[in-house]
Amino acid sequence: MPDPRHPLLWMAYVSLSCIHGGRRIRYFNAAPDTEMLASLARYVEEGVVRPHVDGVYELARIADAHRAFETSGSRGKQIIMLA
Fold first, then answer.
1. N or C end of the chain: which has fewer CB within 10 A?
2. Dihedral sign from CA coordinates of 34, 4, 31, 14
């Protein structure tokens, strides 16, 4: 298993695990510190990592976001705007 202090290695590990077998549970857990979050932000800014966003919803439409997650089979994240 890769070192959890290296987010790109973890993401690669989780992504590659999807190739083997059918539906399996993929678990990713990290306790990021400031340095790790800064590195991840830099990767996003440089285009090394591209977040997959399926939908953006206001808090009042959280039920719509939940339905979209359940029905679309999306691979992206459902974002809830709080402000």
1. C
2. positive
**Which residues are within 8 A (CB) of 63 and not within 5 positions of it... i.e. 6 or more apart?**
none
Residues 6+ apart with CB under 8 A from 64: 57
The alpha helices in the chain, defined as continuous H runs, are: 7-17, 34-46, 62-72
Which one, of 62, 58, 61, 56, lies nearest residue 74 by Cα?
A: 56
Q: What is the pTM of this model?
A: 0.47
Q: Per-residue pLDDT tens for 34-70? A: 888 898 899 999 999 888 888 899 999 999 988 888 8
Count CA atoms closer than 13 A to 74's CA, side-chain side.
Answer: 16
What SS3 state is found at 11? helix
Which percentage of the chain shows pLDDT scores above 70? Answer: 70
